Amino acid sequence: VTENRSDVEDLHLYATPREQRFRRFASLEFEGQLYMTPYDFIQAVTSDEPKCAKKWRSLSKQELNQILMETPPVWKGSSKLFRNLNEKGVISYTEYLFLLCILTKPHAGFRIAFNMFDTDGNEMVDKKEFLVLQEIFRKKNEKRERKGDEEKRAMLRLQLYGYHTSTSSVLKTEGEDLGPRSYWDTLRRSTSQVLFSDLAERSDDISSSLSDTTLLVHFFGKKGKAELNFEDFYRFMDNLQTEVLEIEFLSYSNGMNTISEEDFAHILLRYTNVENTSSYLENMRCRIPEEKGITFDEFRSFFQFLNNLEDFAIAMQMYNFASRSIGQDEFKRAVYVATGVKLSPHLVNTVFKIFDVDRDDQLSYKEFIGIMKDRLNRGFRVRIPI
């Protein structure tokens, strides 16, 4: 049984950009709630649009149970988990937001996230504690309703969360567009123990009204009784970051061990707010006439660095405040001091050739940091509708 998107397309008008993107890529529906498959999620973070117009396929209870029965335990996770599951998995909207956060955060932040979920401090996270995440993401993502919107927003919440929710004091003001860092800041700074206690008390009611998902079964077992330790949590997050980077790299490498410098530039620029990318590409072609190629290790190290962009920006600003120019050696040193990531000389040279638009062999804050902040927010793009 399928339901055509056009039947409820008017709900798009009442959805936030993130909700719109989830609805566009999701392909499954169970008891009125929409879900992505692992394949849908990979598409959503590596493609501008779904490869084909989709309909929401309704799952039966038997089909959902079969999918969950085939979900591997967390200790069998790998950097090919999502590709191996393919269409055999269900990912809820709040889990989609959580997974997007994983893709844009430094490894050091994973411990912070884990400790915030671990409300009883036993260095293990159980299913009840993890479900607190659902409420935090829901509260941070809700949109203030205009008069007359109540019915449509209620339908949308049921479609995305699987249960009716009421608006609360944590709603953002109308027109405000919170970046992905807002979710992280909620976990890291803004969420008090009182809020966690309150949400933890409600999580029993929430869990009883929600269906299990692939992620919940993967983390907590088919009976939901297992607990998640930090090592498994860290491995899952590191594997997901690696998997998405592998998919992007392989889409350009054509079976080779490297991608061209121009392909590397394409990957960086396609997620930014840069209007005229051709000028950057032409700049790089003129200044790197002979291709050497970018390896996957170089590619991965650069994106590990980007996930630490805030710390690097502080180091880079210190050079600027001291009226010091940022050359390649200073850039490489600032990356290592701020993030612990060592970038190869060839990779640094390629980055300079792409972003040094005035060709003075120096990078300014505007030339690099401003553009890369757009790139960091993959999945929350501004120029491309999300």
Please write out the topology.
Blueprint: E1 2-3, H1 17-25, E2 28-30, E3 33-35, H2 38-46, E4 56-58, H3 61-69, H4 81-85, H5 93-103, H6 108-117, E5 124-125, H7 127-141, H8 150-161, H9 181-190, H10 193-209, H11 214-220, E6 228-229, H12 230-253, E7 258-259, H13 261-269, H14 277-287, E8 294-295, H15 296-306, H16 309-321, H17 328-339, H18 345-355, H19 365-376
Parallel strand pairs: 2-4
Antiparallel strand pairs: 1-4, 2-3, 5-6, 7-8
Helix pairs in contact: 5-7, 7-10, 12-15, 13-14, 14-18, 16-17, 16-19
Observed structural traits:
single chain; two-stranded antiparallel sheet; globular; MICU1/2/3; disordered N terminus; disordered C terminus; MICU3 protein; four-stranded mixed sheet; 2 domains; 5% strand; mainly alpha; 386 residues
Characterise the protein shown here.
The protein has 386 residues and is mainly alpha-helical. The protein has two domains: 5-241, no CATH class; 254-376, no CATH class. It has 19 helices and eight strands. α7 (127-141) crosses α10 and α16 runs antiparallel to α19 (365-376). The protein is globular, with a radius of gyration of 22 Å.
* Secondary-structure element order, N to C: EHEEHEHHHHEHHHHHEHEHHEHHHHH
Please, how many helices? 19
Overall structural domain count: 2
Strand sequence of the main sheet, in spatial order?
Answer: 1-4-2-3
What portion of the residues fall into strands of 2 or more residues?
A: under 5%
* Silhouette: globular
pLDDT average, as an integer? 78
SS-based class = mainly alpha
Distance between the termini: 27 Å
Low-confidence stretches: 1-7, 164-183, 188-196, 379-386
Strand count: 8
